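Field log, afternoon session.

UNIT: design team B
ACTIVITY: writing a sequence onto a fixed backbone
BACKBONE:
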């Protein structure tokens, strides 16, 4: 990452939601991107969820009602933490899966009125499967719903945010392009509890469960 000129937070401010399927590289890329900024923080959904040390229920586990409650709680806590960082002048890279439009609406409403952008790392199903399978066992994510997740995301979010094909890029190259190009490629999202999702040039409520890296 030598010879990379940091991008100022004035150019890329607020919260950049970094989404993608398991194995897309969200955690690695969002961390690298934050390190390229003069003032930035990374918020990882898995880290926030693991703050529950007693009574935690995995999002695909039972009882289902409690799993859904904790899934939504994780998203709310991520946004609350992001808001605090943004209000103190930090750019936030939020590492989380956004699987459909209702989840995006929830996140952007919770972040509103702060700037929010969506970047979907999209190296393709086969690349994601390979990357996930070759991870350290402690970091591997047990998931076999790639095709359905990709279908759902493209159906609901195909015209939203920046679908970033990273299949031929290293994590460092991906992070560099994300920081440099997100302002122009990932339009600022407008949203709130009573507004519709709306993309503006240079400018989102009950979630369906999914959390993975």
């Amino acid at each position: 990452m030598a010879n990379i000129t940091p991008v100022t937070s004035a150019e890329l401010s607020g919260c950049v939601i970094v989404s993608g399927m398991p194995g897309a590289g969200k955690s690695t890329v969002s961390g690298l991107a934050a390190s390229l900024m003069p003032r930035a923080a990374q918020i990882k959904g898995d880290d926030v969820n693991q703050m529950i040390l007693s009574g935690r229920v995995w999002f695909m586990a039972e009882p289902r009602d409690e799993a859904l409650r904790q899934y939504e709680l994780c998203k709310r806590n991520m946004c609350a933490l992001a808001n605090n960082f943004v209000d103190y002048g930090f750019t936030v890279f939020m590492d989380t899966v956004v699987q459909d439009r209702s989840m995006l609406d929830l996140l952007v409403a919770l972040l509103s009125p702060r700037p929010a952008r969506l970047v979907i790392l999209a190296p393709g199903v086969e690349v994601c499967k390979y990357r996930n399978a070759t991870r350290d066992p402690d970091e591997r994510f047990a998931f076999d719903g790639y095709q359905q997740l990709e279908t759902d995301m493209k159906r609901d979010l195909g015209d939203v945010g920046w679908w970033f094909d990273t299949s031929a890029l290293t994590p460092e190259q991906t992070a560099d392009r994300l920081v440099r190009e997100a302002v122009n490629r990932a339009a600022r999202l407008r949203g709130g509890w009573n507004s519709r999702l709306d993309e503006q040039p240079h400018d989102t409520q009950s979630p369906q469960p999914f959390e993975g890296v």
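LOG NOTE: Confidence is low (pLDDT under 50) at residues 193-213.
NEXT ACTIVITY: expression trials, pending approval
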